[in-house]
Write a structure and sequence with these properties.
38% of the residues are buried. The mean pLDDT is 94. The chain folds into three domains: 174 residues, MoaB/Mog-like domain (Molybdenum Cofactor Biosythetic Enzyme, Chain A); 74 residues, 2-Layer Sandwich (Alpha-Beta Plaits), CATH 3.30.70; 155 residues, Alpha-Beta Complex (Maf protein). The longest helix has 18 residues. Helix 2 packs parallel to helix 7 and helix 3 packs across helix 4. It is elongated. Strands 2-1-3-8-7-6 form a six-stranded mixed beta sheet, with helices on both faces. It has a five-stranded mixed beta sheet with strand order 14-13-15-16-17, sandwiched between helices. Helices cover 39% and strands 26% of the residues. It is an alpha/beta fold.
Amino acid sequence: MKTASICTIGDEILIGQIVDTNSSHIARQLNLLGIQVKYMTSIGDDRSRIISEIGNCLDNTDIVIVTGGLGPTKDDITKDALRELSGAAGYKHSAEQMAHIERILGARGIPLIDTNRAQAMVPDTCTVIPNKLGTAPCMAFHGLGKSGHSSLYSLPGVPFEALGLLPDVMADIRSHFDLEEITHHTVVTFGIPESTLAKRIEAWEDALPANIHLAYLPNPTIGVRLRLTQFGGQADFKPYLTELQKILGDAIYGEGEDTLQSVIGQKLRAAGKTLALAESCTGGHLSELITSVAGCSDYYKGSVTSYSNEVKMKVLGVRAETLAQYGAVSEPCVREMAAGVLRALDTDYAAATSGIAGPGGGSPEKPVGTAWLAAAKKLPDGSITVATQCVHFASSRAVNIERFASYALDLLRRNL
């Protein structure tokens, strides 16, 4: 199996000024090619350290991908460090990258200056992979390291530029390396914590063939992804997935990149049904998730963010007696919220949330992290049925809100 290192360059990462998201995206793409990432490292803006640490990565792995340090300012020293590291005699001009620089700056009305022109100058040992989204090119170096067979790719640090270059970088890697065939299949689950899930499918996992590996990828909003990976040969995962479905049932809600909101959208669109939302504790986050799916206007009508009791009563029709007797964070209240928004926006389905996100506002009876969720649907005779669920979390306000919203989506999914 080929191996790789991922290096980020810049003091801004080491002091916590920005968060490195590039490495995770790069690692994911390398893994899909069957390449094992052995090292991830961040290097400050120090020329000698850049040369030393990247050189060490080249000596110990087949592929090194570097992001950062390629801007037009004087503190970006990566290019010259790579010139020395690769044994380049000097620089050459990349006419193709220069054309992109002129186009990008011209479209923004920015005059072309010497520092921009310098970005089209690259070490004469590299092959340029043009950056169509920014001014700094990707530079590819081959035949490096103590083996003489390692490759180095230097990408700009701006995330959308780095991600935009990854398909071309991965294609170049495939053209230079004999990669082991690898096949992935991912199923997505929700509602079972990772540790409980692992215990439940332990016997199934133990029975997998030696060449099939299972990875657990938890996410509080999406759930736990279970990724099966087979190294070498064509994979037929169907028998194993059939057995997994028998064990987990409707806790499995999708495959690949599916999310709760995308699966809900698929089901609503296929059935020609519509959706409305009533939110209190989630403050619009539930709506944000639903509208993150392209084409959601086919089925999503809108929402009411009813943070106050006044709005719950005047807009959603929650009864004053309900609030007085049970409070806003209660099953009767969230039932009336879901039914009320379904009637108000004339939809087929609705979901509602009411809870205590924190950090204050809790009580012994209803501690912080408590939420009531509801999913309502209109029956053929015009009546409304409502399913409810109470959840309890003990996280920060932001994480509580995320989990309230995702569990509300799952309740809706199970009741579509």
